[in-house]
Specification:
By secondary structure, this protein is of the alpha/beta class. It is about 30% helix and about 30% strand.
């Protein structure tokens, strides 16, 4: 089985034992990792965009170490990957601060060419989340004034992937519900 995950993998900063720790994570990226670790026989693809900087290089190396294909991981020479910081209070409740407003992943859909799109249609399944859809730059997708969900639905539909092969995780964060309020 060939499975693609559309989303954004970000640099993650969190405190562990009094030290700031760096890693890489994201909802769809984590799902891709779990699928590949559990079902190694499945060909797993991460579909996104990253920068051309050392932090992006480190993230791509991590994706490859997980045996996830970077065939659809585009490089943007003008942007970088997003970053977030996790804070944990005394009760163990986590909070997050994000720096992603100018990340490469926001422009990913405009970076795929006809060959990429044709190759994606050969995937057996494509998974994406509400968060992955919400971060995309509407200007790169829109040709006329339409709401975000309509634009993104049309773009995903343009991949010509059968409906039963597309899977949406409607995981949402309150900061994105303005653009995708129809899902909540």
């Amino acid at each position: 089985m060939r499975v693609g995950f559309i989303g954004e993998c970000m640099a993650e900063l969190k405190e562990l034992d009094g030290q700031l720790s760096e890693g890489f994570a994201g909802d769809t990226y984590n799902s891709a990792v779990y699928l590949k670790r559990t079902f190694n026989q499945h060909e797993t693809f991460y579909i996104s965009a990253v920068g051309s900087d050392p932090l992006s290089d480190q993230m791509v190396a991590g994706v490859e170490e997980e045996n996830i294909s970077t065939r659809f991981l585009k490089r943007d020479t003008e942007k970088h990957i997003g970053l977030y910081r996790i804070y944990t209070d005394d009760e163990g409740e986590r909070s997050f601060i994000y720096w992603r407003s100018d990340s490469a992943a926001k422009r990913m859909m405009s970076m795929f060419d006809a060959t990429d799109i044709a190759s994606m249609t050969a995937l057996d399944m494509v998974l994406f989340s509400g968060i992955a859809l919400a971060i995309l730059n509407e200007d790169d997708l829109a040709t006329e004034a339409e709401d975000t969900l309509t634009i993104l639905t049309k773009h995903i539909d343009s991949l010509n992937i059968d409906g039963d092969k597309k899977k949406l995780d409607v995981l949402m964060r309150s900061l994105y519900t303005e653009s995708l309020d129809i899902l909540v």
